[in-house]
Design goal:
- The chain is of the alpha/beta class.
- Helix content is about 60%, strand content about 10%.
- Strands 6-7-8-3-9-10 form a 6-stranded mixed sheet, sandwiched between helices. A 4-stranded antiparallel sheet has the order 2-1-4-5, with no helix packed on it.
- A hairpin with a 2-residue loop joins strand 4 and strand 5.
- Helix 14 packs across helix 15.
- The radius of gyration is 34 Å and the shape is elongated.
């Protein structure tokens, strides 16, 4: 029986119940319904055992030993059946919950990987890691401990209520004088738990971010002696987390204490009232024992719901954070997968306006650019002028606010972005290096290509051969130099061998001699490709067809070579 986690393209409905149902319960209602059936059977058997115990006690008091022995056999038989169905219920619910959480752990990262680039660029990695690990674990605890048990508690409560009312309606009504009041108090006290749990998770996420930044920038911390500053920031966030945790714990402790009072008072009242009815001959001792068990059954769901509401508030806070990811838009992508056969330009910007989300300043305004197939174009300009933004727009990471961008003669909005990016190689000055072997990092350019001869040639041309035998590059390439990282990134782009090659400050960390050698090798290797090189340093001009100098307000100064 299949289990699913629904990833909605439209936002989830607001409200606690609808979020949990829509996101977790509703897509798997068939498997939860099966668990509900087991819960009903188990609850019916539990109530039937109480009724058998009542008859057995009455038979023993009246000294009808043979009848009591027959009842004992029945109790043993139905007791085994009850344990069997209880086992099935727990096993089935446990497997169901684990499969749901497994789907959740698969689908949330999947949603992130295929979401809009702009979200990932804005979001802190520590926050994302906190959501994937801590928030999903909170939901897992809620589902495993309470959702499966919820069906059982509701079932046994309703069945016990029916038989208790049938046995003695007055005592049943009396027992419910205190219970509803206590239940309302529990709900009210549990409300702040969600608020403080949300604060806890936010503080925990911030602490993760601070520590992650400290680890990744350890060399900066040490050389500028700011370890204590980061440690202070980390401790302050932990203190805030601890304060929220303590406030939440106070309310959880109140829930526990009130729960004890709610359990104790009805039992004492019924025991006294039942004893009086036995003395007056209106009730048997077996009926009183059975009724006390019914009262316990009434109260156990109350105890369950006190914990349920507390954990529910925490799960709601976690769902609120996960919902942000689940409702992320996937990259808007067209259906075009083929290059226009009659296109004149590989890259065209036509009156393009662009600014980043959540900002007011335009990076590009009425921007125009045309690059023919096979042209080698150098873009120059000071930092922050918009050079790297041009590369991001070509790769479809962002859409223009106004105007058109055409790649290979096709409007970028019509392109299937995965197919478009297959035709583009990119080298960034901060290209990510995976903590794997160097050869594996190069193969990521075109992982299905196992041409060893081509890889060997590229390693030589990019000068990666000088350090190819390095044991490990370390996390984020920390065990190799900045220049070595750039050479690996260049080799990766060469191995992809795409129609368009974009290089954004590809030699910024290389020494002059190595940079010149690698530059010449790249230009020769990509002689038939369209090259767009973005830099603020001027390399050898003879290799370029034109130089474009980007100025303020997106003005271009074009020089044909």
């Amino acid at each position: 029986m299949g289990l699913t986690i629904t990833i909605e393209k439209k936002p989830l409905k607001s409200g606690k119940k609808s979020k949990l149902n829509q996101f977790l319960i509703k897509p798997n209602r068939k498997v939860f319904l099966t668990s509900y059936v087991f819960s009903i059977i188990s609850a019916v058997l539990t109530i039937y055992l109480i009724l058998l115990e009542k008859d057995m006690i009455n038979y023993l008091i009246s000294k009808e030993y043979e009848a009591s022995i027959k009842i004992i056999y029945s109790i043993l038989l139905f007791g085994v059946l009850e344990l069997f169905f209880e086992y099935l219920r727990n096993i089935f619910t446990g497997k169901t919950v684990e499969k749901i959480v497994k789907d959740l752990r698969n689908n949330v990262p999947q949603k992130l990987l295929f979401s809009e680039y702009s979200y990932l660029e804005r979001k802190k990695s520590g926050d994302i890691i906190s959501i994937i690990s801590n928030d999903i674990e909170l939901i897992r605890d809620f589902l495993k401990q309470y959702v499966g048990e919820l069906y059982y508690q509701i079932s046994i409560f309703c069945i016990a209520l029916f038989f208790a009312a049938k046995m003695d309606i007055k005592m049943t009504l009396m027992s419910f004088i205190i219970i509803p009041i206590g239940f309302i108090i529990l709900l009210v006290i549990s409300l702040p738990i969600k608020i403080y749990t949300a604060a806890q998770q936010a503080m925990f996420g911030k602490a993760n971010i601070i520590f992650s930044e400290a680890i990744n920038a350890m060399d900066v911390l040490k050389v500028f002696r700011i370890e204590k500053f980061f440690w202070k920031k980390f401790k302050e966030n932990l203190k805030s987390y601890f304060r929220s945790f303590m406030k939440s714990s106070i309310f959880e402790s109140l829930l526990f204490q009130i729960n004890i009072i709610i359990i104790f008072l009805p039992l004492m009242a019924i025991f006294w009232y039942g004893g009086m009815r036995i003395i007056n001959g209106n009730m048997t001792f077996g009926e009183l024992i059975a009724f006390l068990q019914f009262i316990i059954i009434f109260l156990l769901p109350l105890n369950f719901f006190s914990n349920y509401t507390s954990t529910l508030r925490k799960a709601e806070a976690a769902i609120d954070r996960i919902e942000e990811i689940i409702n992320l838009k996937e990259e808007e992508s067209g259906n075009e997968i083929m290059i226009s056969p009659k296109h004149e330009y590989d890259i065209e910007f036509i009156n393009v306006d662009f600014k980043y989300p959540d900002t007011e300043k335009y990076i590009l305004k009425n921007f125009n650019l045309k690059i023919k197939k096979g042209e080698k174009v150098l873009i120059l300009g000071k930092n922050g002028i918009g050079k790297s933004t041009i590369a991001k727009l070509i790769m479809g990471y962002y859409k223009p606010i106004k105007g058109n961008i055409k790649i290979f003669g096709v409007d970028i909005n019509k392109w299937n972005l995965r197919e478009l990016r297959k035709k583009i190689s990119f080298v960034d000055q901060h290209s990510y290096i995976f903590p794997e072997k160097i050869i594996e990092n190069i193969k990521y350019g075109n992982y299905n290509n196992n041409n060893e001869e081509k890889i060997h040639k590229i390693i030589q041309l990019s000068k990666v051969n000088e350090f190819i035998d390095a044991i490990s590059v370390g996390e984020k390439g920390k065990k190799i130099s900045g220049g070595q990282k750039q050479r690996i990134a260049i080799a990766r782009a060469m191995f992809k061998d795409a129609e368009i090659v974009i290089m954004d400050e590809p030699f910024s960390s290389l020494d002059e001699k190595t940079a010149k050698e690698v530059f010449k090798n790249i230009m020769e290797y990509f002689r038939d490709k369209t090259i767009l090189m973005i830099t603020h340093k001027i390399p050898e001009e003879k290799y370029f067809d034109k130089i474009i100098k980007l100025k303020n307000d997106s003005m271009l100064e074009e020089e044909i070579l």
